[in-house]
């Protein structure tokens, strides 16, 4: 390749960009030792990643602890200028974690003070869950360009007195943080530009009330192996909220006027006034009350995708037509076994009413149904869905739970009839081999 193959002919700006793309700080440090020019250029990188698994070589050595990583970070970080993206992750190699084996607050503050004029993205994984570090939070507010923040394993019982503001913070992710309701509320209020908030298995929350005028996406991803009790109530005042994802939250209180995507795992009692913009509704998990499901479906007049895979506590019949006839924009529907069992095609007096108010789902293209019992009611529901969906392309039937019985034998016969009656629809079936 001639001269162009020589790294030394690259302009400084290109060489610095290449160094900034290296996976971790150890690689950058090795490059710095190669020659005098590289030593100067590596001091100008804008991205550094310190990962204990890489830097400490995963050795079960008592001397390889947080203070060891602290020394490495301090030695290298303080030689650089203008760091924009910084990731410092300490994962103790002994399980359970060594008590008091975490970064000292003074050292973390030293790092933040060094980068506070340039830092835009920070990931800090610090195994501290023993005591609060308020000075660290104060130094974070001094990072005036900070736009993206991910904290893991911290303890935030309350915000420090007279804190600054996160003026430019757009994304805030908290993982395994112990934080109380008031501290979370204050943290959100101190972030006027916040658009994306995610809390993963954060202990200490019970009834958080959040006001965030620019918030677009909110997620509570609670792992019940970590969070010992579900959050009782989440109250949200966020007029621009587009997406909400909740796991192990008992009640949701909000005005859903701008909401387009709603993902709920485990039973949530919804207290939502209206959902006129909702396009995607995904409900799964245990302990659901059927009326909570139907309440949300009936509010979603603009739904395009409906995915119900919930385990229902008490089942009772619901007329399919009365539940879905308002979903004129629906394109994709997934009906889990418990929910499908509750659905019934209109019969008797109900059938006469439905003939006067014919259900049509003009945009429906894909149906997925999980079938637990192949009786006549099941076939009637499938027939009704096929009949009312002129644009339907695919019907997927998951019959893995079917067992040998006369009803289930007839199910396959009736399914073949549906295929003959609706030849334009691709009907696919998954079932136990013993039934084929």
From TrEMBL:
Matching InterPro entries: F-box-like_dom_sf, F-box_dom, FBL13/AtMIF1-like, LRR_dom_sf, LRR_FXL15/At3g58940/PEG3-like
Gene3D superfamilies named among the record's database cross-references: 1.20.1280.50, Ribonuclease Inhibitor
Domain F-box/LRR-repeat protein 15/At3g58940/PEG3-like LRR: from-to ranges: 111-247
Superkingdom, taxonomy of origin: Eukaryota
Annotated ranges, domain F-box: 8-42
Signal peptide residue numbers: none
PANTHER family xref list: F-BOX/RNI SUPERFAMILY PROTEIN-RELATED, FBD DOMAIN-CONTAINING PROTEIN
Official protein name in the record: F-box domain-containing protein
Organism whose genome encodes this protein: Ceratodon purpureus (Fire moss)
């Amino acid at each position: 390749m001639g001269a162009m193959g020589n790294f030394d002919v690259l302009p400084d700006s290109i060489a610095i960009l290449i160094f900034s793309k290296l996976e971790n700080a150890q690689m950058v440090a090795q490059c710095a030792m190669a020659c005098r020019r590289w030593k100067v250029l590596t001091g100008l990188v804008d991205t550094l990643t310190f990962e204990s698994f890489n830097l400490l070589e995963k050795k079960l050595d008592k001397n390889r602890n947080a203070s060891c990583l602290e020394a490495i970070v301090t030695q290298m970080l303080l030689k650089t200028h203008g760091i924009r993206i910084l990731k410092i992750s300490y994962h103790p190699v002994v399980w359970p974690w060594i008590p008091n084996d975490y970064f000292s607050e003074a050292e973390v503050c030293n790092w933040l003070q060094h980068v506070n004029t340039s830092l835009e993205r920070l990931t800090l994984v610090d195994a501290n869950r023993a005591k609060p570090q308020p000075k660290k939070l104060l130094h974070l507010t001094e990072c005036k360009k900070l736009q993206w923040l991910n904290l893991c394993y911290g303890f935030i019982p309350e915000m420090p007195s007279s804190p600054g503001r996160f003026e430019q913070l757009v994304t805030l992710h908290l993982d395994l943080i112990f934080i109380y309701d008031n501290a979370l509320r204050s943290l959100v209020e101190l972030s006027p530009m916040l658009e994306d908030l995610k809390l993963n298995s954060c202990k200490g929350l019970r009834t958080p009330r959040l006001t965030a005028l620019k918030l677009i996406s909110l997620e509570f991803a609670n792992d019940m192996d970590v969070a010992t009790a579900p959050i009782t109530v989440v109250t949200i005042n966020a007029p621009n909220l587009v997406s909400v994802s909740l796991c192990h939250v008992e009640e949701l209180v909000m005005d859903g006027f701008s909401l387009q995507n709603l993902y709920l795992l485990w039973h949530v009692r919804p207290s939502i006034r209206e959902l006129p913009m909702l396009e995607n509704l995904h409900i799964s998990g245990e302990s659901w009350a059927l009326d909570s499901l139907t309440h949300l479906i009936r509010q979603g007049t603009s739904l395009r995708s409906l995915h119900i895979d919930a385990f229902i506590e008490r089942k009772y019949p619901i007329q399919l037509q009365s539940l879905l006839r308002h979903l004129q924009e629906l394109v994709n529907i997934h009906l889990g076994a418990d929910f499908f069992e509750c659905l019934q095609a209109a019969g008797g007096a109900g059938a006469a009413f439905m003939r006067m108010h014919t259900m049509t789902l003009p945009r429906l293209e894909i149906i997925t149904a999980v079938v637990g019992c192949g009786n006549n009611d099941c076939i009637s529901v499938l027939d009704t869905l096929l009949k009312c969906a002129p644009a339907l392309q695919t019907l997927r039937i998951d019959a893995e739970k079917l067992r040998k019985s006369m009803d289930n034998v007839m199910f396959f016969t009736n399914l073949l009839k549906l295929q003959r009656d609706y030849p334009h629809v691709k009907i696919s079936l998954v079932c136990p081999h013993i039934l084929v």
